[in-house]
Specification:
By secondary structure, this protein is α/β, with parallel strands linked by helices. It folds into two domains: about 110 residues, FAD/NAD(P)-binding domain (3-Layer(bba) Sandwich), CATH 3.50.50; about 100 residues, 2-Layer Sandwich (D-Amino Acid Oxidase, Chain A, domain 2), CATH 3.30.9. The protein is built from seven helices and twelve strands. It has a four-stranded parallel sheet. A hairpin with a 2-residue loop joins strand 9 and strand 10.
């Protein structure tokens, strides 16, 4: 296990998918002295480890659709880039409508997706029942389905980024709790941890649902 460095150019708080990805992309672009800290004994055991692993293009805002297009292409190229697979299963993603009020909303969203190059299909109620026969859906009146959506393994993605970040020189530690962040004249100066203190001027808060704690501390 690597020791906690005394100085880091960037300290990343949280070893889930966001923290791991940040560490990898900084290190792979030549940034030095990257430090990632995870308080648990394993990476990706917080919100990342509790997610269902769904990957999809089907969102109702342009920004989310464009983000999904970018992130799904990254997942598709993960094995080529890092040497580890995301264990993707493109089994499709189905949204089912059972209320008339939802139909116009989803059809509007479908037009937005099509305008951005996303090949989502509109299904009738009968088509929904045929596609998802084991689930039956007797009250389905419509649905949207994208065959390019599906599932990926969160742990595989996290460890692909962690291992690749380490190969590029990043230090990624587990069992290291952050106890406080020292700020002086509106600038981060130090990060105090259970393993010691690190001098830094840049902190990336990738703590997911726990981000607010350090956000308030930094201001």
């Amino acid at each position: 296990m690597s020791e906690l460095p005394k100085i880091a150019d960037v300290v990343i708080l949280g070893g889930g998918v966001m923290g791991a990805s940040t560490a990898y992309h900084l290190a792979s672009r030549g940034h030095k002295n990257i430090l990632l800290l995870e308080r648990e004994s394993f990476f990706g055991t917080g919100a990342t480890g509790r997610c269902a692993g769904g990957i999809r293009h089907q969102f109702n805002t342009e920004v989310n659709i464009r983000l999904s297009q970018k992130s799904l292409s990254m997942i598709d190229s993960l094995e080529e880039e890092t040497g580890q697979s995301a264990l993707v299963r493109k089994c499709g993603y189905l949204f089912v409508m059972t209320a008339e009020k939802d139909v116009s909303v989803f059809q509007k969203t479908l037009k937005l997706q099509h305008s951005l190059g996303v090949n989502t299909e509109w299904l009738s109620g009968d088509e929904v029942r045929k596609l998802a026969a084991p689930c039956f859906f007797p009250d389905a009146i419509g649905g949207t389905f994208n065959a390019d959506d599906g599932l990926a393994d969160p742990n595989s993605i996290v460890m692909a980024y962690i291992n690749a970040a380490r190969r590029h020189g990043a230090v990624c530690l587990t069992d290291c709790s952050v106890n406080g962040i020292e700020v002086e004249k509106n600038k981060v100066r130090k990060v105090h941890t259970s393993l010691g203190t690190v001098e830094t001027e840049t902190v990336v808060n990738a703590c997911g649902p726990w981000s607010a704690f350090f956000g308030k501390e930094i201001g």
